[in-house]
Amino acid sequence: MQRLREGDDLALNELMTRWKEPLATFALRYTGNVTDAREIAQETFIKVYGARHSYRPTAAFSTWLFGIAVNLCKMRARWRSRHPEVLASDRDDSAAAAIAGAESGADPAGETDRRALADDIDRAIRILPHQLRVAFVLFEVQGQSYRQVAQVLNCSEKAVERRLAKARERLKSQLEFKWKEA
To answer: Among candidates 105, 9, 95, 92, which has minimal Cα distance to 50?
Structure first.
């Protein structure tokens, strides 16, 4: 980021190579929509480039980067709630994954159960309130520390701990009725 700030525009390519997948994964877990996740990852890098001259490293770069992505996810969710639509390409991703699993020789019944559980978990994550969802995805999926999540959410580490506990409890209550014996 320092090189980008100093005018080396090619440094953005290195940032994108390193952070594109983690950002897209975070955005996909947050939104549940492949198209939105890709667009949010791209928009994040556009924002990074736009803020390159004003960037001041007061925290880890990843904290700043995911902070931008969190804001974009929140704005996208707000926009989606006002403009509901379902894109066929996003809807068909789980079917394509199931077909790919079947073609690879995996156990079809087991693969179907794993896919169904993953879909249920993703849906449960998507209905968590914003603060709980961000904390859960950053900590559990992205592997960030309490400190990093606290910096992104602008709260204390203890607050992150409480939000994670609430998120886990809500996820457990939403999933346990269907997956008790699974």
So the answer is: 9
Q: What is the pLDDT of residue 90?
A: 45
Q: Judge whether residue 95 has pLDDT over 50.
A: no
Of 56, 57, 38, 58, the residue nearest 46 (C-alpha): 38
Which ranges constitute the DSSP H helices of the chain?
A: 2-5, 11-31, 34-50, 61-82, 88-91, 93-103, 108-126, 130-136, 146-153, 157-176
CB 76 within 8 A of CB 20: no
Rounded to 10°, the helix 157-176/146-153 angle is 100
Residues 175, 171: Cα–Cα separation, whole Å:
6
Three-state secondary structure call for residue 7: coil
pTM of the model: 0.68
